[in-house]
Amino acid sequence: AKAARTAYVCSECGADYNKWQGQCGECGGWNTLSEFIVEPAAKAGAGGGGVAASRRSSWAGRVDAPAVTALKDVRHSEESRVSTGIGEFDRVLGGGLVHGAVVLVGGDPGIGKSTLLLQAITRMAQTLPGLYVTGEESLSQVAGRAARLGLPLDGVHALAETGVERILEHAAATKPALIVADSVQTLWTEQLGAAPGSVSQVRESAARLVRYAKETGTAVFLVGHVTKEGGIAGPRVLEHMVDAVLYFEGESGSRFRVLRAFKNRFGAVNELGVFAMSDKGLREVPNPSAIFLSGSRSPQPGSCVMVTREGTRPLLVEVQALVDSSPLSNPRRVAVGMEQNRLAMLLAVLHRHGGISVGDQDVFVNVVGGIRVQETAADLPVLLAVLSSLRDQPLADHTVAFGEVGLSGEIRPVPNGEDRLKEAATHGFKRAIVAKGNAPRGGRIGEMEVIAVERLSEALDAA
Ligand code: TYD
Ligand code: MG
């Protein structure tokens, strides 16, 4: 049989070389090649010669073309899901963990990934016997934490090991239904000469675990530390290999943590799970709507509350802005929790269609609570907060806003307006400024007055 060979693959364009070189000949990227193992094809023969040969062969000439089946005749099994025992975790996974799914959980060091997965694996142990593999802590540290958190320990095996071959041996012997590998950066395989922690080791080790998961139907959680560039384990390769990618985020100094699905083959993305870190581990926050308000009761200049919708839940979130005359010739635009370019665009619209210039001012915008708002519904509240700071006047008490701001100064409706308005009314807001298409007919929701606006200038007047 042909032995596995080593290849050097460009992480940018996927070009494949036999020898390492500093620059990729295809895309010109520097230092993008890393070492991979190429398994020999299972069936050498008609198709032999790999990708290149099969690309060259014409369809008519192929005798071993895979059978084509009508999609409706393909047998499929309903995905069976198991609850993780943590409602917010289930929500982000799309309603529980799917058998045989491989889920990558990424986040900054110290954010609580190990804690979350330890809580989940011990709670799931009744239905899914688990194997917790740690390459970062000793077994006594893991056991100590589990005991301190009062977690049930039956049905969970623990292993302090980083070699994939030995992890898989243990898995084959104990046959767990769930494996947690904490963290994927510590894993290495004997098949590669590269140092543990290198991109190729991480990728190949993860690939071995993914293969094992698919062959045996074992569910696998891979823990990954986010690197400075923001990608898990450097290259985005891991994200393509797994079924779901979840990010665990939070602001340093805040006890709230947000788990977000970035990719999910078995559920919706952008669903949020909200947790609070306590001395008893991570606790769920099942009704998180109001935790992203800054908590100050009297209205402050530069603050506006918006209703964002992350996943299937409306959330009240405070946006803060600080506008200050700038000593710089190129004043700063800093956005935390939203996209910087979007802020620059909104300020241009404010100038052009609202007649308000902040060209000589530094503008800082912060979304309270470490949450990242990705939807355009934040446009209007951001501009209202900027205006409020510029004028040093608070918005009227108990006001919320949401709406997309277009380049020609129009305010556009956003999805699920009624849900958002109801949520704001439930939390005692008295006034809402929204796009006309989002406003209810009577101009009220319960006790709350809803002001419908079509143009940015109208919104600024209303505020
Ligand atoms: P950990 O799960 O080890 O983070 P990660 O695996 O993402 O690196 O969590 C570490 C932090 O959480 C640590 O700074 C202490 C804090 N923590 C608590 O506040 N309460 C607890 O019950 C636990 C277990 C951890
Ligand atoms: Mg950890």
Explain how this protein is built.
The chain has 463 residues and is α/β, with parallel strands linked by helices. The protein has three domains: 1-76, no CATH class; 81-284, 3-Layer(aba) Sandwich (Rossmann fold), CATH 3.40.50; 303-462, 2-Layer Sandwich (Ribosomal Protein S5, domain 2), CATH 3.30.230. 25% of the residues lie in helices and 27% in strands. The chain is built from eleven helices and 24 strands. The chain has helices spanning 50-56, 87-93, 113-124, 139-148, 164-174, 199-216, 237-241, 340-354, 379-391, 417-426, 456-462, and strands at residues 5-10, 16-17, 33-38, 81-82, 97-98, 102-107, 130-134, 156-160, 178-182, 219-225, 244-249, 256-264, 272-278, 281-284, 303-310, 313-325, 333-336, 361-367, 399-402, 404-405, 411-412, 431-435, 444-445, 448-453. The strands form five sheets. A nine-stranded mixed sheet has the order 8-7-9-10-6-11-12-13-14, sandwiched between helices. An eight-stranded mixed sheet has the order 17-18-16-15-19-22-24-23. Helix 8 (340-354) links the parallel strand 17 and strand 18 (361-367). The longest helix has 18 residues, at 199-216. It is globular and about 70 Å long. Residues 42-62 have low confidence and may be disordered. The structure holds thymidine-5'-diphosphate (TYD) and magnesium ion (MG). Residues 107, 109-115, 145, 149, 277, 279-281 line the site of thymidine-5'-diphosphate (TYD).
